[in-house]
Amino acid sequence: MRGIIPSLSLILASSFLISAPTQAARVAVHASGGTLGIGPAVTVGLSRSFNVRAGLGSLDADKDFTEDDINYTATYELDSRYALLDWHPMGWKVRLTAGLVNIENGINLQSNVPSLSAQIGDNYYNQDVDITGRLTLADGTYPYFGIGFGNAVSRGIPFGFGIDIGVIKQDTPEADISVNSPQGLVSESDIQKEESELNEEFKGLDLWPVLNMSVSYRF
Fold it and tell me: What would the pLDDT profile of 27-48 be if each residue is shown by its tens digit?
């Protein structure tokens, strides 16, 4: 997983070597934000039609939700690193993109369930119950394919704007929760069922939508 960072450096260094025989490499820096997080990126032009791009992003966001009458306080943690190849047909601003994205996405969960207010697994419990845990959405390196607009290293005005739209097939969500109650009566089978219900609630996020926007400056 950590090996992607040296790989990004190798890709960028190679791009400079490829570009050097014909012209000085065109380089642009970005500030980007979206569903891959907020962070910096760099683009290096290889030719009129091809660029390489690398960057990283992170974002924490709070969004509560309810699952089977249990109110969860949720903190979404997004963390990504990516290495991409952009193809601009005929040198146009429109681009087709492919590459690798290393993602660590998850949701930290917390809930206090008052006595007899909601079902945990198959049962109601005659006591207050505290639930804490994490729902892991992605933890690995995944292929990315998408389309976009903008060529940060094209000639002309040095400032630019870009947008990426695509999808990443990541892992199936996996919940891991702990349940604390004064009398310790919550059964393991009910905990496992609540985990399964959380997995089912978020199963659509195995296809992670990518919508990122950026502003750039070309040197």
Answer: 999 999 999 999 999 999 999 9
CA distances from 50 to 53, 77, 85, 94 (A): 10, 32, 7, 12
Structure tokens at 194: 């609540």
Q: Is the pTM of this model over 0.85?
A: no
Coil/strand/helix, residue 108? strand
CB 179 within 8 A of CB 186: yes
User: What is the H or E stretch that residue 206 is in?
Assistant: none
Burial of 156 from C-beta contacts in 10 A (0-12 / 13-18 / 19+): exposed
What are the tokens at 156? Answer: 């002309």
Reference 55, options 13, 106, 5; nearest CA is 5
At 153-189, the pLDDT tens digits run 998 899 999 999 999 998 899 999 998 877 667 888 9
Please identify which residue in the block is written with the tokens 């590459």. 99
Q: Which of 44, 147, 50 is nearest to 96 (CA)?
A: 147
